[in-house]
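Technical annex, item 7. During the second reporting period the consortium partners agreed on a shared format for inverse folding records so that results from different sites could be compared directly. Each record opens with the tokenized structure and is followed by the designed sequence. A conforming record, contributed by the partner at site C, is shown below for reference.
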């Protein structure tokens, strides 16, 4: 359900307050009226308003002062100056200070409806621009690569059924299995597909910054808060919020997140007024949340809120029949980027790719094909192209190349490098995959001088 817009009217004329309120309420908006600037600021601090209608000539603090204070606290809030014809020059001056537009008194109901809708549209564009700027910074091409295995057919079936709904989805699977891509696929097939899809990487933020990132903060709320920040929930309003690696958030933030999901409203740090938000929540984790609940590291009530519809992405080694399909896809993708025309991989490469266990899953396969395309000198990827990036740590390592076999130490070194690379240098995860403890892995990294 979409939330109705809330409008604040600040005018010392009772007739204006009443007529504006009636017109706006008939249009389906919420409306609250204040008789002077002092009362208007009080209401503005108590509640959240999407648009403010502000008279310039007010008793007490005048309209210019009220405008300055509103824009300082909520710069994205459109303020429409209401003025008599004699003070239109002042209204233009107010627009230079940040007012959205002005409305001359007397005005018709049609004029009021039109300018309020225009202001609401501008506020929507403000948040869309924040979202689009972030999207342009991302280099990843979010084209969903599914495959044709039975395991992925089951995943696709769930996606088809859950996408049109408003249900919260919890996507589980190891690093590199494509959890964010699947979340985007759900969003792109939902009624919210034309609204923002906003990603929050819970694993990349320190807890002290996480609350500000999610809920936002007001200017001056803490040291370093030099301007008002709009939280991810606000930016995602009307669309989808994807919480990646949700298991990384602390119990304190979990409690606040649960309240937001239940109440569908957020409160910026340093503010007391709640902001209504309309978002669909998708979450993902590579951890077992049920285990974390048993260990009291994750709230049980939040776990049940997030896992309304659970979807598990299988490991690439559990769906190897998809590898040829994925290889063809990545070949086309990186041929285009590198401006090459590599149209195939050799039989030896196909065998190597199928024999390898892919600890980094689809992400590792994609990186491997990208590097092979860049480094290949011909129109076919050969076994020698894979040696550069450690795939030889699988099948190619154990086959002779030019009737020469590699020493055991070299095989171990290359495999450790491959796993570390797939886990982006995370030694704890790499040690787990290798079946050794972290201390042993550190010893081997030092022994082989692996960077």
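Designed sequence (site C submission):
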């Amino acid at each position: 359900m979409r939330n109705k817009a809330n409008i604040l009217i600040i005018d010392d004329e009772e007739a204006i307050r009443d007529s504006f309120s009636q017109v706006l309420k008939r249009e389906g908006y919420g409306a609250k009226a204040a008789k002077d600037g002092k009362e208007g600021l009080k209401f503005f601090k108590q509640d959240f308003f999407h648009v403010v209608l502000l008279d310039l000539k007010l008793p007490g603090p005048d309209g210019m002062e009220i405008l300055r204070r509103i824009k300082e606290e909520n710069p994205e809030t459109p303020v429409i100056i209401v003025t008599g014809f004699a003070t239109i020059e002042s209204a233009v001056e107010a627009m230079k200070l940040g007012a959205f537009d002005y409305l001359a008194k007397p005005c018709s109901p049609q004029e009021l409806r039109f300018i309020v809708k225009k202001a609401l549209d501008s506020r929507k564009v403000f948040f869309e621009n924040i979202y689009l700027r972030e999207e342009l910074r991302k280099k990843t091409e979010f084209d969903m690569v599914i495959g044709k295995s039975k395991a992925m057919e089951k995943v696709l079936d769930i996606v088809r059924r859950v996408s049109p709904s408003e249900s919260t989805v919890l996507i589980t699977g190891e690093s590199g299995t494509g959890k964010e891509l699947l979340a985007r696929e759900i969003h792109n097939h939902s009624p919210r597909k034309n609204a923002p899809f906003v990603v929050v990487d819970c694993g990349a933020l320190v807890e002290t910054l996480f609350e500000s990132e999610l809920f936002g903060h007001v200017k001056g709320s803490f040291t370093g808060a030099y301007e008002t920040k709009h939280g991810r929930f606000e930016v995602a309003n009307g669309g989808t919020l994807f919480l990646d690696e949700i298991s990384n958030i602390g119990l304190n933030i979990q409690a606040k997140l649960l309240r937001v999901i239940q109440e569908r409203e957020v409160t910026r740090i340093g503010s007391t007024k709640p902001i209504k938000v309309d978002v669909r929540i998708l979450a993902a984790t590579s951890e077992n949340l049920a285990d974390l609940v048993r260990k009291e590291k994750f709230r049980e009530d939040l776990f049940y809120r997030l896992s309304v519809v659970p979807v598990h992405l299988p490991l690439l080694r559990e769906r190897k029949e998809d590898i040829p399909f994925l290889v063809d896809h990545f070949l086309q993708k990186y041929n285009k980027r590198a401006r090459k025309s590599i149209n195939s991989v050799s039989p030896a490469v196909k065998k190597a790719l199928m024999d390898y266990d892919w600890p980094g899953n689809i992400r590792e396969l994609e990186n491997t094909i990208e590097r092979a395309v860049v480094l290949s000198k011909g129109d076919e990827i050969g076994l020698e192209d894979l040696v550069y990036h450690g795939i030889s740590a699988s099948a190619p390592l154990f086959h002779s190349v030019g009737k020469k076999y590699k020493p055991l130490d070299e095989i171990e070194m290359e495999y450790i490098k491959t796993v570390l690379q797939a886990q982006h240098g995370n030694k704890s995860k790499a040690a787990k995959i290798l079946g050794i403890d972290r201390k042993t892995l550190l010893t081997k990294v030092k022994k082989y001088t692996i960077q």
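The chain has three domains: 6-124, 150-314, 317-447. Residues 109-137 form the longest helix (29 residues). All partners now use this format for quarterly exchanges.
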